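Final report, section 2: Outcomes. Of the targets proposed, Mor transcription activator domain-containing protein is the one most frequently requested by collaborating groups, and we therefore present its record in full.
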Amino acid sequence: MDDPRNWQALYRELSQVIGRSATRQLYHYFRGMQVSFPQRLLDSHREADLMYQEYCRGSSVTRLAQRHNYSERSVRRILTKFRE
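The predicted structure is given below as tokens.
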């Protein structure tokens, strides 16, 4: 049970990233469930707030797009919605 070579491929990969102990904890907590991880770490409303704050402090739309991994068009749309 403790040898990752005997584990399912997903758990072997996880153990290489987060370690054996954390992998076992995830297994016991989530086993049998399907878990998907959102592509973005930040909550969309909070990220919009952060982007607006940065914009107000002088960050350009181009810089915000690069920093937050959005297109400039998306940044403009987010800032417009945030102002409303």
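The chain has two domains: 1-37, 44-83.
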